[in-house]
Amino acid sequence: MQGSLMTDIPTDGIGVSNDLYAFLQAFFKEHPQLVKNDFYITGESYAGHYIPALASRVHKGNKNKEGNIINFKGFAIGNGLTNPEIQYPAYTQFAVDNKLITKEDQADINKLIPFCVGAAKNYVSKGGESYETALQQCQLIFTNILAIAGNINVSNRN
């Protein structure tokens, strides 16, 4: 709505999963011929925050017999960002183990970890740093590794 603020937009996993579940119920109400089809939830990257919550919400809705029973078969997350406080700090050890950087490089890059973790915690606790700030702080770890490792395809490591 132009000119008005929307204050009821969910920003956490529970709120988002409830909205998505309501959408799915409305969708299957409009398309009842599809409700018996196998249903999978998939996503990648930041969807790693929301897919487990939605999967749990669908399971709960089915268990409690809320609306249409969704023929939920499973979920998948590709390269999911589920917990940046754990994932980003692990990148430097992975890079050392795969001979992309040296131990000395790791020590230098690890100095960025407290800034990443702090920004991620502030973002998660709401009212703290913005998502963009947290992403920039954490992404510095990854970009420093890539700068040292050279022109590599991070999705194709042997």
UniProtKB/TrEMBL annotation:
Protein name: Carboxypeptidase
Family in the record: Belongs to the peptidase S10 family.
InterPro entries, per database record: AB_hydrolase_fold, Peptidase_S10, Ser_caboxypep_ser_AS
Catalytic activity, EC: 3.4.16.-
GO molecular function, one term: serine-type carboxypeptidase activity
GO CC annotation: extracellular region; vacuole
UniProt-listed PROSITE patterns: CARBOXYPEPT_SER_SER
Gene source species: Pisum sativum (Garden pea)
GO annotation, biological process: proteolysis
Keyword list, A-Z: Carboxypeptidase, Hydrolase, Protease, Secreted
Localisation: Secreted
Keyword Magnesium set for record: no
Pfam short name (any one): Peptidase_S10
